Amino acid sequence: MFTARNAGATQVQPTTPVPAHAIRFTTPVMPTPAVFLLIRWVYRLVRLVVLAPLRFPVGVSTLLGSVVTLHYLGWVGLALGGVLAVSGLGLWAWRWPRVFHCLVVLRVLATWRWVWVYRRHWQPVLVIAGLAESYQERHHLPRIRAVTCTDWADRVRVRLVAGTAPADLEHRVSELAHGFGAPSCRVRVRGPRDVVLEFPRRDLLAHPVGALPVPDHPQDVDLAALPVGRCEDGQEWRLRLHGTHVLTVGVTGSGKGSVLWSAIRAMTPAIAHGTVRVWAIDPKRMELSYGRALFARYADSAETAVALLEAAVGEMRQRASRYAGHQRVHTPTTDDPFIVVVLDEVAFLSAYHPDRDIRRRAENAIATLTSQGRSVGVCVLAALQDPRKEVMNLRNLFPDKIALRLDEASQVDMVLGEDARDRGANAHLIDPEVPGVGFVRLEGSPAPVRVRSAYVTDDDIATMVDGYGRSPSSPEEGG
Ligand SMILES: Nc1ncnc2c1ncn2[C@@H]1O[C@H](COP(=O)(O)OP(=O)(O)OP(=O)(O)O)[C@@H](O)[C@H]1O
Questions:
Q1: Distance CA 285, CA 288 (A)
Q2: C-alpha of residue 256 to centroid of ligand 1, in Å
Q3: Residues 6+ apart with CB under 8 A from 10
Q4: Does the keyword ATP-binding apply (predicted)?
Q5: Strands 186-191 and 378-384
Q6: Half-sphere exposure of 282 (CA within 13 A, CB side)
């Protein structure tokens, strides 16, 4: 025993505690016979060949056509065919550019992006992002079903691993966006285990959007869908005012004024016609005073602002008692116009004003208007810098909210609702160089959408006042 080479190496003191091990069962690892691997490869090859004409009809028919031409007409015939095909495509692109763009350019781009970006990086990005699921010592990844391209984004349709949820992807949108070199990523759910990841290729909101055209006639003003800017996909951003209340939140310089002015601009013919009346409250005396002639009422001090709000409550109550039992929906007319109370920096009245009585009266009036004004044609369109509860405890009375650039990540969910940040609404990361950019939830979609409000300049406001404002001699309502 003492002559053994490793004597003592395994000696254990009798008093050393022996660690308790639970019995662990592991799946035995057995090498797969080569014949099975071969059968699998052959099966994959056959499947690729059989499905290729369905998956890549254009590519396969071009290849077949080239082979047949080469066989019967030789190299000269093939070159001639190539020249003819390219000329045909050129003619198509010149004559019908939009159709060519959709049917050829975007499809070729989608194939390229599928192979070069998503297929190539799919596994490493998803594994590192923590989206690979392990089961019986094997990795399972969501599978790419298709890649399509629009003018501004790639859409990757994905089949989820059974037992996972779209929320797993929603919590990793940052990792996915950086992983695939996109500025952002959004998750849209199509059905069970069927989701689409949207990766913008370029930012359509990088440049300011000029003031949008004023509608020609009052009848063209759709109070349920006022054009106020552009969405990230290039579509018009339309804002509902009739039947709701809207709160725009953003730090100073984030562009709240452009949201207010774009909404007012979209209503100007109806304002001139008298079917819409704007009652403006402008504590800073800088934002709205320039367009004063467009407003039926205007207030710029705390006392007059509270009086204006209480007058709106009075009008609302009077309408409610007139409508009771006769009418359930408000239709704007010159006798019963749609009243929009535009309230810049609402916290000035509800939180910052030193007079407690003013704060209490303002809060009561705003709460009454936002909770009861909807159905009688009174809307509050307010702007706010700080969404925290201690500053604005009425924010939940506004059904529609717009989050422009915010100070802190936690404020995103305060404004847009609980899961907004997880769904990619990174309002706290908006570049200060792009004022007017923000996130909204559009009707019918839980996913927040990135938007940019149109920028209404002082000259635009002056033109609106000249064309649609009250003449200087006509007094303000109640003034
Ligand atoms: N939609 C927009 N597009 C481009 N530039 C904009 C837009 N909105 C605002 N700006 C620019 O940003 C500046 C600040 O905008 P604005 O005064 O509307 O911000 P705000 O959020 O109302 O700030 P504050 O709370 O201090 O009044 C404007 O002077 C203008 O130059």
A1: 7
A2: 6
A3: none
A4: yes
A5: unpaired
A6: 18
CA of 406 to the centre of ligand 1 (A): 14
Q: Which of 218, 225, 211, 335 is nearest to 269 (CA)?
A: 218
The Cα-based distances of 45 to 52, 59, 122, 144 in angstroms read 10, 17, 22, 19
What DSSP line would sit under 16-56, residue for residue? SPPPP------PPP-PPPHHHHHHHHHHHHHHHHHHHHHHS
Distance 239 CA to ligand 1 centre (A): 18
Q: Ligand 1: residues within 6 Å at CB?
A: 208, 250, 252-258, 287, 385, 435-436, 452-453, 455
* CA distances in angstroms from 190 to 57, 160, 197, 312, listed in the order given: 26, 11, 11, 44
The domain 209-468 having CATH identifier 3.90.180.10: the answer here is no
- The third-level CATH classification (topology) of the domain covering 99-202 is Threonyl-tRNA Synthetase; Chain A, domain 2 (3.30.980)
Q: What distances in angstroms separate CA 106 from CA 99, 111, 113, 277, one per listed residue?
A: 10, 9, 10, 46
Contact indicator for 470, 293 with CB cutoff of 8 Å = yes
At residue 479, the pLDDT reads 44
Query: CA-to-CA distance for 461 and 87, rounded, in angstroms?
Result: 51
Distance CA 42, CA 46 (A): 6
Q: Provide mean pLDDT across the span 368-372.
A: 93
Number of Cβ within 10 Å of residue 427's Cβ equals 29
What DSSP line would sit under 382-407, residue for residue?
Answer: EEES---TTT-TTGGG-SEEEE-S-S
99-202 matches 209-468 in fold: no
Burial of 356 (0-12, 13-18, 19+ CB in 10 A): exposed
Q: What is the mean pLDDT of residues 32-60?
A: 89
Q: For the chain, give the mean pLDDT.
A: 88
Nearest CA to 244 out of 344, 366, 375 is that of 375
The ipTM is 0.96
Looking only at the bridges linking them, the beta strands covering 297-299 and 276-281 are: parallel
- 168 three-state secondary structure: helix
Site to probe by mutation for ligand 1, drawn from 450, 455, 456 as the one with most ligand atoms within 8 Å of Cβ, is: 455
Q: Could you state, in order of their start, the residue ranges of all structural domains in the chain?
A: 99-202, 209-468
**For residues 191 and 13, which has the higher predicted lDDT (pLDDT)?**
191
Q: Which residue has the higher pLDDT, 441 or 213?
A: 213
Q: Which amino acid is at 242?
A: H
pTM for this prediction: 0.77
Separation between Cα atoms, residue 35 and residue 376, nearest integer Å: 77
One-letter amino acid of 52: A
What tens digit of pLDDT does each residue of 134-143 get? 887 778 999 9
